[in-house]
Amino acid sequence: MTRSRTLDLSVVRWLDHRRDRSARYREREDVYQDVVLHLWPAVVVAGAAILYFGRKRLSGRLRTFVMMIGGSILGFFVSVLLHNGIYALVFVTLMDRPDLDEPVFFIIAVLVCPVVLAVGVIGSLVTWRKQRRPPQES
């Protein structure tokens, strides 16, 4: 083999490696899975910190809305864990019926927690803005 042929093969291998790597990360499931698997602990810690901050440092309506934000974040993850845990333990292991499903915690995670998060964010922004605005003199 000549030197030119060897160099061409190494370039081809390098390009194949780059193409395989970029194709792997272009797939939507891989990117989504990587992001979720690596960021969920930070989101849970942030939710707990928001809940703690709201309880200890704030008062009035702002406290309520900020605690709704933290509670909805933590509630989402607790509901997901309970939904999957109950499904795996009860329906798959004990009953041997994987076709059944547990709907309560799924509904809480998918419907209730996002609504509570939206109410908490909007309410805390409105309350915070009203508190920062100086009183108007007439």
In brief, what are we looking at here?
With 138 residues, this protein is mostly helical.
How would you describe the overall organization of this protein?
The chain is mainly alpha-helical. The protein has one domain. Helix content is 86%, strand content 0%. It contains 4 helices and no strands. The longest helix is centred in the middle third of the chain and has 35 residues, at 60-94. The protein is flat, with a radius of gyration of 25 Å. It starts with a helix and ends in a 6-residue tail after the last helix. The model has no long low-confidence stretch (mean pLDDT 81).
Find the structural class using helix and strand composition: mainly alpha
Number of helices: 4
Q: How far is it from the N-terminal to the C-terminal residue, by CA?
A: 92 Å
Helix content range of the residues, please?
over 70%
What characterizes the major β-sheet? Answer: none
Write down how many β-strands occur, each being a DSSP E stretch of 2 or more residues: 0
Low-confidence segments, ≥5 residues, pLDDT <50? Answer: none
Overall shape: it is: flat
What is the H/E order? HHHH
Total domain modules: 1
Strand content: under 5%
**Average predicted local confidence, pLDDT:** 81
Q: Using only CA atoms, what is the Rg?
A: 25 Å
